[in-house]
Amino acid sequence: MDHQIDIMVVEDDMIIAADISMQLTQLGYNVSAILPKGEDALAQLQHSQPDIILMDVGLKGDLDGVDTAQEILNNYEIPVIFLTANSDPETFRRAKHTRPFAFITKPFEAIDLERSLELLVSRLTTEKEETSNAEIQTTDQGSYILSDRIFIRFKERMVKVFLNDIKYIEAERAYCRVHTTDKEYLITLPLKAFSEKLAADQFLRVHRSYMVNLSKVDELAEEYVVIGKKMIPVSKNYREEVARRLRTI
User: Are 196 and 112 within one domain?
Assistant: First the structure.
């Protein structure tokens, strides 16, 4: 299944926080938490991590937004977008050292937030240079693959699809149709190119037009495999490898 992108809002003005939350919901994102203090945000991250954090720079408490973002950078792999009414050079210099993905000055228009979030998702490929364990790859047409999920453009927004939820992938000329447990997505990328970006221990090409998630295979016959109620052909050239791989699962 696809999942909305989770966003944590850290903002000490509850009126502003509520307005931001409404805008995010309208854009198709899920607001996982609204927190007024940096200390609260760090405590929440010990239990669950969102995909993105919107952080007010001028938080009240022992930690301002920059201090909190620094702690996040040191301990987590979560991109931060700063929101601030204070754009003085010193604040910007401090904020820059935490390597945020964007810096939005209040008051801002809804389009500013929308475009910043779109840009953040499109810049996920740069995270490969900054993190130690998230292997990120990019397709040519608006899909981004991490170690355990793929971001796919769907109905004018990016949604995340966990790789474990993908059942099989079907070639349609220069496109790929990704079949998940509850939806289908069309990606403008040939199957060969897409298959090269997926983990070989989880996905296997079984036919010139099909690639399967090995963990989703229910039945194996000489000339086909079954996933759910779908019978997927297995080409002669792939039969030995398919049988060998399924026996080892």
Answer: no
Q: pLDDT tens digit string along 67-96?
A: 999 999 888 878 899 998 876 788 788 888
The domain boundary residue, chosen from 122, 150, 173: 122
User: What's the pTM value of the predicted model, to 2 decimals?
Assistant: 0.53
For the chain, the three-class secondary structure string (H helix, E strand, C coil) is: CEECCEEEEECCCHHHHHHHHHHHHHCCCEEEEEECCHHHHHHHHCCCCCCEEEEECCCCCCCCHHHHHHHHHHHCCCCEEEEECCCCHHHHHHHHCCCCCEEEECCCCHHHHHHHHHHHHHCHHHHHHCCCCCCCEECCCCEEECCCEEEEEECCEEEEEEHHHEEEEEEECCEEEEEECCCEEEECCCHHHHHCCCCCCCEEEEECCEEEEHHHCCEECCCEEEECCEEEECCHHHHHHHHHHHHHC
Determine the average pLDDT of the residues in 167-186.
88
The enclosing domain of 17 has a CATH number of 3.40.50.2300
Asked whether residue 182 is domain-assigned, the answer is yes
